[in-house]
Amino acid sequence: MNEKRFYDRIDYIDNIDILSKLVCKEYNLGDYLSTKIVEIGYEDFNAIIDTSSGKYFIKVFSNSRNDDEVKDVIERAYIAEQNGVKSPKVFQNLEGNIITNVQYNESKFRLSLMEYIDGNNFFELGKNATEEELLKISDLASEFGNIDYKPNFIYDYWAITSFINEFEKKKQYISQEFLNYIQPIYDRFKKFDYESLPKSFTHGDIILTNIIRDKNNEYWVVDYSVSNYTARLNEIVVSSGDFALIEGNKEESEKRIKIMFERWAKNVNATDFEREAFEMLFRVQNAIYILNPSYQIAIGNNSDENKMYLELGKFGLMLDVDMTKN
Prior knowledge:
single chain; alpha+beta; Phosphorylase Kinase, domain 1; Aminoglycoside 3'-phosphotransferase, Chain: A, domain 2; 2 domains; 5-stranded antiparallel beta sheet; 3-stranded antiparallel beta sheet; 16% strand
């Protein structure tokens, strides 16, 4: 594993053992045993610490984040767990804080410590969620709307709310083929009354990599980096657009999306407008899956991940997701 790309996100440290031992002291975790770097995740430095008192998940925040962003990210996870969402516990350090600043020589690290969940996310599991699991994921997606919390806004260029702005910035880089997919959706969305949708605290990124199934078949939601106060409908649009799709199988994908939406709609007592709006927002989400990777490829980032999202977006736009039908 090329560890340098992970270490480049934070200040210099001779090796991770040094930082981990300091963390053990800050949180009174007992004797330090070992650390394993978590490879999934694009911004922060994540690792699992093994100590005499058990295993823990540590997030060392990237230097690209300012202090307010760090506070926002971990506060969201803390509040969600405190309000009953099945989410890893955020531990307080010996001073009662959920964010710890650690100094080592000239380096400074801002970090948080969380409960370690012994399991795998759905990307690692490598198989489609069952219908029973789809219902459980919809239940998780609906829980956030019950939390009385309005965090500071975080801009996410993958978010539904960012589509108009991102399209206007990137359309010049998009091939005519993909522009033909996206332009009509952009035109529709500009006229759409998004602000009339019911708002709530939303996780915003309930996708394959952010739901963990543990050894006891319990399901946990992680990573609050793009959570916001926005249309609660976004939650089920994003989660169903990731978990429900079986690429190449249109009929089965449509059925699974319907299963997830109806469970969520029942849990939150969805409005008629939300039911009508699902199709519009689903189109926007898949347009984003075409827009952002197309832009990245146009500027030379021809990664497998970008190709995957392009195919996912095109497939998603083929689906009939009208939730007003019986």
